[in-house]
């Protein structure tokens, strides 16, 4: 996943409020954490939030995309990176906090995948550790893709999103086409397909409790990147 997307990810996310994401994580850590020292960024992408947390914590990044991890590794020397599946983490040590941002959890396209991930995170957290993550809502997906498609023309890059929803399974299929302007003035075409599942709050809370977590906070946020819900779980 995201083999091609990695080539344009930082361009597409140029205006993302990474500092805002970092602030939310630190606020929740201050509210519910026990002076944590280590953070695992699970689904770290190209490492932008990890980079901003690095001055205050010992950071580790994990992503399923080898290409994303390679980009993050080139940016950041003072962190450890691994290419692994979040459902089956095999790390050398446990962490005080695990985070999964930018609706990483929505890429788990089944309840079984969600259960495995919560179990995997539990095993890689220290006692009293926190798991902080966000998910997008059905309302946001409907808002993003009215009529099924969305076009974002930024001049040097044009993004065409084609969306289809499997209402029975609660799964969304998105075909993305990027046209990126090159130095010679020509445009390069890059395509990527990804799948998301929209979990309900009850599904997430019940699965988290089954894995042994305490759900300490469920908070809606519409300021960072559209309507989404942040969960804070405690081991």
UniProtKB/TrEMBL annotation:
> Example GO molecular function term?
methyltransferase activity
Q: Please give the CDD domains that the UniProt record associates with this protein.
A: AdoMet_MTases (cd02440)
Q: Which organism is it from?
A: Psychrilyobacter piezotolerans
Which named protein is this? Answer: Methyltransferase domain-containing protein
What PANTHER family does the database record attribute to this sequence?
TRANS-ACONITATE 2-METHYLTRANSFERASE-RELATED (PTHR43861)
User: In which domain of life is the source organism classified?
Assistant: Bacteria
Q: Which UniProt keywords apply?
A: Methyltransferase, Transferase
Q: What's an example GO BP annotation here?
A: methylation
Q: Which Pfam families match?
A: Methyltransf_25
Q: Where is the Methyltransferase domain?
A: 39-129
